[in-house]
Amino acid sequence: MSDGDGEKTFSGSKNSSPKLPPALLHLPTPETPQISDLRSYSDANSALKRGVCAAIIPLPSLLFGGREPRPGGDRIYGVFDNQLPAALKKLPFDRHLSLQNVRKVVSEADGYQPHLIAPEQGYRRLIESSLGFFKGPAEASVDAVHFVLKELVRKSISETQELKRFPTLQADIAAAANEALERFRDDSRRTVLRLVDMEASYLTVEFFRKLPLEPEKGGNPTAPASDRYADGHLRRIGLNVSSYVGMVCETLRNSIPKAVVYCQVREAKRSLLSFFYAQVGKREKEQLGAMLDEDPALMEKRDAIARRLKLYKSAREEIDSVSWK
């Protein structure tokens, strides 16, 4: 072949397209299936992280929405509409505010001598001890909602088809979700107990300002202190405390569910697996492969293909850097 023919082979004529050098014919182009296959295996960490995310994506819709949302909301409303009111009604206020106990508390608060009696301290002690009973139903509501959420997560994870192929990942997600739910439960418990303590630490003054203006029906407001320390006066103290406790009970009946939903249900929707996602992002390919129960032979194949792709890219970059004239 002459030099002129060689030049035509490389540069071509005006009417013909340039021909590639023989070396380029052996390299796959970016559009060929070989390169696509190599790229699918090239980045081990990215591929594994995508696999983890793809397996988890259906989980939130199963938990909190989708075409067939779980009846977790109805069960949670059942806790607030049925369980909490029933627990509040069972509190032993009748026994705690009985005449005998009121006499005992007032006497211990103000002394045994009639001229030392001032019922304010007795009122406060009776109210504080009565409000302490609300802690039990409040904590029970927290635990009941925690149980509902935990059961909801368990069923949703077990029914997520994408997770059934990866038992290790499924177990890791279940452990992470339960750990998060426990954190939400602990925060919720602290919040509802704080609500009760707030009511006990600061009493509504306006309620008690009206008490001197409402003398006992049928009683003598000008009677001496020794007479007012009789059973009728102590019974009136018990009734006043009972009325105040009832007012606080209605407040907590509304505020406890709000606190539980805010601390547990809302946080479960927002950040149930946020910490888990952050931990997955920090893991190396060996750890990710273990989470996905990946075959070691497949991991070795991915590494070999990644090295081949790197060589292909390097060769093409070197050839593309040559300008053909």
From TrEMBL:
Residues 234-325 form the GED domain. It holds the Pfam family GED. InterPro entries: Dynamin, Dynamin_stalk, GED, GED_dom. Gene3D superfamilies: Dynamin, middle domain. Residues 1-32 are annotated as: Disordered. GO terms for molecular function: GTP binding; GTPase activity; microtubule binding. One of its GO terms (cellular component) is cytoplasm. This is GED domain-containing protein. Signal peptide: none annotated.
